[in-house]
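lol forgot to send this yesterday, sorry. struct tokens for the thing we talked abt
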């Protein structure tokens, strides 16, 4: 098997890899990384947007970025200028980001699927002065401007494609290639590069202030922490989300090629792995719910990052796709924080997020902020150079999570005697049933392994007797029908793997979940759309469907 060959390859230990990464000097800024990569890789292909056919070499990327940076300067974009970028997954997105980085300007990524109200939130909070958009996405921006929700005028709008009848700037006209570029002001590690908005799974999105150091180190850590070569890397989610951004920088460190999808697709994912000879990817574990395909195991993936995979599904995913699927943990606020080394197959299915990444320290603390004993559960805190500078224009939220150089994640963790960390759940995602605290994540992990189940979200719903009861929302695997036998097996799985008080009382089935920009299940949206949380659900205690639904 391919993964056995990879595990047999000799590499230095991860403690030594960490030491080397931290000891080596980082590039001075994004521009220096661009120059180093272009000097070394030259005519190699940097990226392939394989659904649109857009490709570029390292040398041509540098020349285009140089020209675009000069074009931005010519129209008044300077170091520190805040620029909203609302583009589909096209090459203009990373080119714009890199050009802004060369200048020392600041990108505010905006989901092109946002409504005028959501666009206004991002642009107002982050104080956007300019906006880059696409002919296919500007209509919503124009609507937001017409409704008085945003104040950026048309002459400060840069558009990719289409006509410019209202004074908007033509992106292509600004991007004439240039052999060199020198930023008029010094750009350093501490300068702001992104105001990156969180996914908003537990509240309205906040703008994380992410420096040049944050991105330079995130790319390097992901490129080298395994001590292996990744020449063909897949980015399957939109560039307005943070993953494709660090995947691009990781690719530049490796002098490899980034294969970029227009959008995530679970049904085509394993085909992409095969078609493009992918060696590194972020593997959505929900692939277990997709019907098996003949080419699932026909790939050359050296490492696949997975995030929050239920323990009972982990080994089966590795076997089905014949790859090394390893957990990792990170957040918008801190970047990469933990990883399970490729050479530790003993941690597969353990539920561990791994050990701290280079440049990151992790500790678990109690309610008073004191470190807990090994094995005890507490809140995870993370520190290290390059974590976010704070939430933009939100000092109260910043003060809640950043104190004495430590970022409080809001996640409950424990650590084993081997130094590996395990996530237990979110502090704010706990269900209080009578006198018992129940971690929604634990229940979700057990139910996700039930026959026929693809994804699960567990929440607490009001109960006059116990305060809250446990409700499970379930999405079934492709082609799986709902009947009483399946429901009984789901409940039996819960009863076999959980204490009696943790077993959900209510079960509801959904075709799909509301999701954040990063495709995570959005529980606030899920609960907001369920005005009567019992109606239409199966009640285990009375063994019956509550008005409005049936098996």
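and heres what i got for the seq, position by position
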């Amino acid at each position: 098997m391919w993964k056995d060959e990879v595990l047999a390859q000799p590499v230095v230990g991860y403690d030594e890899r960490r030491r080397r990464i931290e000891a080596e000097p980082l590039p001075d800024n994004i521009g220096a990384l661009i120059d180093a990569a272009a000097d070394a890789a030259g005519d190699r292909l940097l990226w392939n947007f394989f659904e649109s056919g857009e490709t570029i070499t390292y040398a041509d990327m540098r020349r285009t970025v140089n020209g675009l940076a000069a074009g931005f300067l010519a129209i008044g974009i300077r170091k520190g200028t805040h620029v909203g970028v609302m583009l589909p997954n096209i090459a203009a997105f990373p080119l714009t980001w890199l050009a802004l980085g060369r200048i020392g300007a600041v990108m505010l990524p905006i989901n092109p699927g946002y409504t005028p109200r959501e666009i206004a939130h991002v642009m107002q909070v982050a104080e956007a002065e300019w906006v880059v958009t696409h002919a296919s996405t500007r209509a919503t921006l124009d609507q937001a401007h017409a409704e008085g929700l945003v104040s950026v005028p048309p002459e400060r709008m840069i558009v990719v494609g289409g006509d410019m009848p209202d004074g908007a700037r033509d992106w292509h006209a600004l991007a004439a290639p240039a052999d060199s570029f020198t930023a008029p002001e010094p750009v350093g590690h501490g300068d702001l590069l992104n105001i990156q908005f969180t996914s908003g799974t537990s509240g309205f999105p906040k703008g994380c202030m992410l420096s040049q150091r944050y991105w330079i180190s995130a790319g390097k850590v992901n490129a080298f922490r395994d001590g292996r070569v990744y020449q063909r890397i897949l980015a399957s989610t939109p560039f307005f989300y943070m993953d494709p951004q660090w995947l691009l920088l990781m690719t530049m460190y490796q002098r490899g090629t980034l294969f970029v999808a227009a959008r995530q697709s679970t049904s085509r994912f394993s085909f992409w792995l095969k078609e493009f000879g992918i060696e590194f990817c972020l593997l959505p574990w929900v692939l277990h719910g997709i019907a098996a395909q003949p080419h699932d195991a026909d790939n050359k993936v050296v490492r696949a990052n997975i995030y929050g995979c239920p323990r009972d599904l982990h080994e089966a995913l590795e076997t089905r796709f014949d790859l090394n699927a390893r957990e990792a943990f990170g957040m918008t606020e801190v970047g990469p924080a933990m990883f399970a080394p490729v050479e530790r197959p003993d941690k597969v299915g353990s539920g561990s997020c791994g050990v701290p990444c280079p440049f990151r320290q992790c500790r678990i603390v109690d309610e008073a902020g004191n470190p807990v004993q090994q094995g005890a559960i507490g809140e995870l805190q993370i520190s290290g150079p390059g974590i976010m500078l704070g939430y933009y224009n939100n000092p109260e939220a910043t003060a809640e999570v950043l104190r004495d150089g430590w970022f409080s994640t809001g996640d409950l963790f424990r650590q084993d005697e081997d130094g590996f960390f395990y996530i237990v759940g979110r502090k704010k995602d706990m269900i209080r049933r009578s006198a018992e605290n129940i971690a929604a994540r634990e229940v979700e992990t057990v139910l996700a392994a039930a026959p026929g189940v693809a994804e699960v979200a567990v929440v607490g719903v009001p109960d006059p007797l116990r305060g809250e009861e446990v409700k499970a929302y379930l999405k079934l695997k492709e082609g799986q029908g709902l009947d009483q036998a399946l429901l009984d097996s789901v409940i039996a799985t819960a009863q076999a793997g959980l204490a009696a008080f943790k077993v959900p009382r209510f079960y509801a089935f959904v075709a799909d979940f509301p999701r954040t920009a990063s495709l995570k299940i959005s529980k606030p949206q899920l609960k907001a759309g369920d005005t009567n949380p019992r109606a239409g659900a199966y009640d285990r205690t009375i063994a019956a469907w509550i008005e409005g639904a049936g098996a």
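The first helix runs from residue 2 to 8. anyway ping me if u want another try
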